[in-house]
């Protein structure tokens, strides 16, 4: 496998882990308007009906992405969809540029990378505050950033594969840092150490969640 | 009520454990499980999940009145500007979701929270879209239509906010009573989503057909 193909494979799989249907739509549009071709088995995606269905799924995907509770409810389906999309996207790319890996190998790499990226996104999402709706909600901004990132990555996959891979690596590292920072913040914000066991208890707590000893309330609430 | 009892009640109304103040799951909040962090039960403190629904009802009543008055005043000030009411309605819908839907659904089980959020959004979307059409038509009457437009804006916001808050309160009470989400509620949402996807697919097909027709037409000209 050439380094270029490897970069394309990783980048397109990572994009699938972020926005499954949008990545496939971008590849179908690319196959429709450029010389890039999808395998015969995926040719349906390039037809009018295939594109229309992909656009409808993109809208549904965005609806799910913007609702953390809906994502929680569909957690297993989401992982499966991301994995399948990663495999399909990698398969489509592999057939166009040629590869020394068997089809199954490409599918497995695509699916695993997509599911790993999706897993990291979900870990980061836990620490993003879910306040407000629409543009007031930080998750909305993150969603737009992800959609823009996916579009940029898919374009770069065809024009500058190593740039696409670089974007994926930088975004992954930033995601991992955000995840760790969120965990640290949760352990320190509005918390104090329990005088009996040292566990971090909330300032409003009258009992330690770890050793169950009584605590002085340092932040009072009123109904 | 003592300070400590009031503090504990406030914690429960915020969806937190009255002892360790960690966030409670829906099951723990509505008395069907102990706190996942410290093992305390609400009943040990003489509290129960119905308190959450009652607190929400008080907050909801205030929200309905404030939102309706705000909408009427803003409409009187900006009513002559076309589509100003659209901006006002969107702002109120955003506030409604931020102040009412978000905090309330955070205390429900995941399944009920998803159903409640989507149904409430559907309700707000349908009500506000329908009534905005009427309000836009009244812009054509100029200054004469202004008081009428303000009254309609206040009424539309009152009805919308009232229905959503009552709906969410009912869902909280059902959660507190341990009643499951009805199949019909899920079916309604699935049907609405299917309709939305069909509409998007139909629009895309139409756009592709127009593009293809234009391409053939322009190709024929050259």
Layout: helices, strands, pairs:
The complex is a heterodimer of chains A (223) and B (222).
Chain A: H1 3-18, H2 20-33, H3 48-65, H4 68-73, H5 75-97, H6 103-126, H7 138-159, H8 161-188, E1 191-193, E2 200-202
Antiparallel strand pairs in A: 1-2
Chain B: H1 3-13, H2 26-29, H3 50-78, H4 84-105, H5 110-139, H6 146-176, H7 183-221
Helix pairs in contact in B: 3-4, 3-6, 4-5, 4-6, 5-6, 5-7
Question: What can you tell me about this protein's structure?
Answer:
The complex is a heterodimer of chains A (about 220) and B (about 220). Chain A has 8 helices and 2 strands; from the N terminus they run H-H-H-H-H-H-H-H-E-E. Chain A is an all-alpha fold. In chain A, a hairpin with a 6-residue loop joins strand 1 and strand 2. The radius of gyration of chain A is 22 Å and the shape is elongated. The mean pLDDT of chain A is about 85. Helices cover about 75% and strands about 0% of the residues of chain B. The radius of gyration of chain B is 23 Å and the shape is flat. Chains A and B meet through helix 3 and helix 4 of A and helix 1, helix 4, helix 5 and helix 7 of B.
Keywords:
heterodimer; A: 223 residues; mainly alpha; two-stranded antiparallel ribbon; 8 helices; elongated; B: 222 residues; 75% helix; flat
Briefly say what this structure is.
Chain A has 223 residues and is an all-alpha fold. Helices cover 68% and strands 3% of the residues of chain A.
Strand order across the biggest sheet of chain A? 1-2
Please report the number of helical segments of chain A: 8
pLDDT averaged over residues of chain B: 80
Shape of chain A: elongated
Distance linking N and C termini of chain B? 86 Å
Question: What is the helix fraction of residues of chain A, given as a range?
Answer: 55-70%
Q: How many strands appear in the DSSP assignment of chain B?
A: 0
Determine the oligomeric state from the structure: heterodimer
Beta-strand percent range of chain A: under 5%
Return Rg of chain A in Å: 22 Å
Strand percent estimate of chain B: under 5%
- Interface with most residues: A-B, 37 and 47 residues
């Amino acid at each position: 496998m050439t380094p270029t193909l490897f970069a394309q494979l990783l980048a397109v799989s990572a994009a699938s882990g972020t926005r499954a249907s949008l990545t496939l739509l971008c590849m179908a549009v690319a196959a429709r308007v450029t010389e890039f071709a999808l395998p015969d088995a995926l040719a349906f995606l390039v037809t009018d009906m295939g594109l229309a269905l992909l656009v409808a799924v993109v809208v549904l995907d965005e609806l799910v992405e913007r609702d953390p509770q809906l994502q929680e409810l569909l957690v297993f389906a989401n992982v499966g969809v991301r994995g399948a999309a990663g495999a399909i996207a990698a398969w489509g790319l592999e057939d166009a540029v040629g590869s020394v890996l068997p089809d199954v190998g490409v599918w497995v790499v695509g699916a695993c990378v997509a599911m790993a990226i999706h897993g990291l996104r979900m870990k980061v999402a836990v620490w993003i505050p879910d306040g407000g709706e629409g543009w007031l909600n930080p998750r909305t901004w993150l969603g737009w950033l992800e959609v823009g990132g996916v579009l940029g990555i898919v374009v770069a996959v065809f024009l500058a594969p190593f740039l696409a891979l670089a974007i994926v690596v930088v975004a992954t590292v930033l995601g991992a840092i955000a995840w760790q920072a969120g965990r640290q913040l949760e352990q320190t914000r509005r918390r104090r150490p329990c005088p009996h066991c040292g566990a971090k208890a909330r300032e409003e707590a009258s009992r330690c969640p770890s050793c169950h000893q009584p605590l002085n309330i340092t932040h009072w609430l009123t109904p | 009520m003592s300070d400590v009892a009031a503090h504990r009640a406030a914690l429960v109304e915020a969806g937190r454990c009255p002892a360790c103040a960690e966030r409670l799951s829906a099951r723990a909040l509505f008395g069907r499980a102990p706190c996942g962090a410290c093992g305390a039960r609400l009943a040990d403190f003489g509290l129960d999940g119905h308190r959450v629904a009652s607190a929400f009802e008080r907050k909801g009543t205030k929200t309905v009145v404030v939102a309706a008055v705000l909408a009427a005043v803003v409409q009187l000030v900006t009513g002559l500007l076309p589509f100003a009411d659209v901006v006002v309605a969107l702002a109120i819908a955003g506030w409604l979701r931020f102040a009412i839907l978000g905090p309330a659904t955070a205390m429900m089980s995941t399944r009920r929270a998803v159903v409640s959020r989507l149904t409430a959004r559907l309700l707000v979307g349908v009500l506000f879209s329908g009534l905005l059409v009427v309000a836009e038509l009244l812009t054509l009457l100029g200054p004469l239509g202004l008081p009428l437009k303000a009254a309609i804006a206040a009424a539309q916001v009152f009805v919308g906010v009232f229905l959503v808050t009552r709906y969410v309160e009912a869902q909280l009470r059902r959660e507190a009573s341990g009643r499951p989400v009805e199949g019909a509620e899920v079916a309604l949402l699935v049907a609405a989503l299917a309709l939305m996807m069909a509409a998007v697919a139909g629009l895309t097909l139409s756009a592709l057909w127009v593009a293809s027709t234009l391409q053939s037409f322009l190709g024929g000209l050259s």
